Amino acid sequence: MPELPEVETIKNVLLPIVKNRKILGVEILRKSVVYGLKEEFIEFVTGTSILNITRRGKFLIFHLSEQKVIISHLRMEGKYYELAENEALSKYARVVFHLDNQTKLCYDDLRSFGRMAMSDEASYLTSKPLIDLGPEPFDITDVNFLYKQGQKTKRPIKTSLLSQKLFVGLGNIYVDEVLFKSGLHPLTPTKYLSIDDWEMVVAHSKSILKDAIASGGTTVKSYRPGKDISGNFQTQLRIYGRRGQKCVVCHRNLRFIKVGGRGTTFCPQCQLHAHSPLKIAIVGKIAAGKSTVLDIFMQAGYC
Ligand SMILES: [Zn+2]
To answer: How much is the CA Rg of the chain, to the nearest whole Å?
Structure first.
C-alpha cells in the first residue's frame, strides 16, 4: 500500500508530466472509483487544466483551473501513469484523463479500492476527509499537543499512529520502523508515552520518512512510483517484513503479532513493553537452584 513517501514520490513524478495540461475528456471505466455521479465528474473535469499536484497525508490533490480540486486516495493498489494516446490501456485501468498533448493520464487499480472526489479550493482542506487529518510530521515543532491528545487514550501506540489523527504519514510499514527506532513496544498504551517519547517518535518519523522520500519510497508488492521507476527504500527497512529473522541490533528473534488487525513485527528486547513488566515466579525445593536462576536473570538485567 502506498504510504506518505510513496505518494510524495508519485506526486513528484506526475507533476512535470501533467502540469498545465488541459483535460480534453475523461473515461470512467469503473464507476465505484469516483464519488458522485459519473456524468457529474466528467463534466466537472472536462475542459479544465491541471495547475498543480500537492499531497496531504496519503491523499493526492489535483488542483485544476476554475478553483476545482480532485482529491485522490490510492488505497491498496491505485497508481497513475502516462501513456501515449495510441497505446493500449491495461486491463486494470479505471479512469482515463485524455490530455491535450496526445497523451493520457491513466489511473489503474487492481481491486478498485481507490477513490476520487470532487472538491474546490475554498473548502477541500476544511471538509471531509481532509479535515480529520492531523498535521504533517514535517510541520511539527512542539510535541505538547501529541502528549495531551495521547493522554486521552489507552489504545496501543501503533493503532493511534495509524489513525492519522495525531499526525499523518505513518502507515503499516513506517509505523513499525519508527516504533523500532524509538524503542517503543507497539502495544504500549498511548497515554503512557512521555513528552520525551513523543519527541523521539516525531524525530524518527521525520528522518525515516525523509530518507524514504529521498529513496523514491518503498516498492512493496504491486506498488511502483512511476513508469520505469522503482522505490529503493525497502533495502533500508530494519523491522518491517523481517518476520522470522533476527534483530539487526541485538540479534534476538523478532516477534510477529497483530495490533488492531495489522501484522506487526517487533523486537522483544529492543522494544520492551515498559508498562507491563513480566512477572516470573521461580519455585523449587531447597537447593533446587532457585538462587542460581535468579542470578542469571539479574546478570541479564531482567530484575
Ligand atoms: Zn533487538
So the answer is: 24
